Amino acid sequence: MNKTLALCLFACFLAVASCSAQEPPYFVTYTHDLEEPGNLEIATKSVQGNPKYANPFISETLELEYGVTAWWTTEVYLAGQHTSNDSSIFTGYRWENRFLPLLREHFINPVLYVEYEHVSAADKGLLEVVGHDSISDFLLTNDQARSKVEKSLEMKLILSSNTRGWNISENFIMEKDLNEPEPWEFGYALGVSRPLALAASGKACTFCLENFAAGAELYGGLGTTDGFGLQATSHYLGPIVGFNIPRGPTVSFSPSFGLNDNSLGVIYRFTFSYEVQQLFGHFHGSSR
Amino acid sequence: MNWRKLCCMWLMLCTVTWGASKYAGWMQHVPDADRTKTNPYAGESEAIAAGSKMFADHCAKCHGANALGSKKKPSLRTPEVQQATDGEIFWLLRNGDLRHGMPTWSSIPEPSRWQIIAYVKSLGESSADTTVNRESK
Predict the structure, then answer these.
(1) Could you tell me which chain A residue has the CA closest to the CA of B113?
(2) What pLDDT is attached to residue A277?
(3) Euclidean distance between CA atoms A36 and A279, whole angstroms
(4) Residue B101's closest chain A neighbor by CA?
(5) pLDDT at res. A60
(6) What separation in angstroms does the CA of A91 have from each of A5, A204, A212, A250, B53?
């Protein structure tokens, strides 16, 4: 069963690896760039970690992102993980929606984000860090953790600016467990990035500077309504680099470094994404 | 005034407002300061070549590889687009026209956006008849 799951995850990765996309290089932080209407982005988000006193793991999340309109993007995530000396399991799904409330570009652009999560405590995707998430969450075995399934509502206020080639984004995260009377959990994510060249080269080239973007990302928990603040929270900071292969996939990589004892030492993040352009145009036949 | 009349008036008002918003177009929203911006790359062959690459990556999926548009997406070779100022098109790329499906392209750095405009303007006008003929081939 475990081998079957691992094979399925690997097959998903290979299927995606044969395609292509445009993508900002962040892993946790969202910007106000929504998916273009009619396009479907398929991505795999991998996280590899080796927590102290626990088994190394690799988490794989398949992401399907669809641009419904120019101001509304919807996404579904399917997550699983493999832990050494333990097992490979499916950990749950998420459904998220992002809305642009302002129909013009401003210096700071807000985006409203709403997500429903149905994931077990065994999820190690680290798509966000909230509340008092810490390294101790990784000490449970998969059998212990998978029995606790959390149905939760997550909301984010995304603020994002594009100026002089730089993108600066700030996310404020709120999460509420829907099946237990637990307090609201809070978190944050900050990202800064820039393409390595602002003007495109006139020649066809794969490794032109404009195809690369670099930056940094900082994210972590901010406690709960019972104890808001940085006490007993975990935080990560890391450089990020993204490579948009012309008319091909986008690949991003980041080593994220834990900033305190509650954090994992280093986690390695890797994203591979591909955009299927004008999805329903493909099904209905191109008009061109 | 009875409810039926009120509903009819409301429907008419909605229709007129919708019609006005549909056909008024994005161009009337462009501030004068943006309208008069000039393209630093206008007419440069290197920039046009770079804009062609950017167009293929970001714009061709909707507007077509030849910029002639498709059933629902407009051609960029109409007189409306070709006679628009560079500043007006630059404003559109930055802000989009979200209600009509055009996303914002502010994530593309400014110099690259000017390169795209240089390329689009280099295409020149193409009449609707030509468009239909080319599409039918």
Answers:
(1) A199
(2) 84
(3) 11
(4) A70
(5) 97
(6) 11, 42, 33, 25, 41
pTM: 0.85
Task: Quote ipTM for the complex.
Answer: 0.84
CATH fold of the domain at A2-280: Porin (2.40.160)
Q: Which amino acid is at A200?
A: A
Q: Tell me: the pLDDT tens digits for B69-123?
A: 987 889 999 998 999 999 999 999 999 999 999 999 999 999 999 999 999 999 9
Q: Which of A38, A67, A195 sits opposite B109 (nearest CB)?
A: A195
Q: Which one, of A1, A67, A71, A75, lies nearest residue A45 by Cα?
A: A75
Given an 8 Å threshold on Cβ–Cβ distance, is A165 in contact with B110? yes
Nearest to B112 among A164, A199, A288 (CB): A199
pLDDT at B136 over 80: no
- For chain A, the structural domain boundaries read 2-280
CB contact under 8 A, B70 and A195: no
> Could you tell me if B131 lies within 8 Å of chain A, comparing CB atoms?
no
Tokens standing for A100?
């642009």
Could you report the per-residue pLDDT of B33-42, keeping only the tens digit for each?
999 999 999 9
Length of chain A: 288
CA atoms of A14 and B48, how far apart (whole Å)? 36
Q: Between chains, do A247 and B95 touch, taking CB under 8 Å as contact?
A: no
What domains can be seen in chain B, in order of their start residue?
29-136 (1.10.760.10)
CA distance B23 to chain A (A): 17
Inter-residue contact A50 to A124 (CB < 8 Å):
no
The Cα-based distances of B112 to A89, B39, B48, B51, B105 in angstroms read 44, 11, 10, 7, 10
Q: Which residue type, as a one-letter code, is found at position B125?
A: E
Q: Are A238 and A214 in contact (CB under 8 A)?
A: no
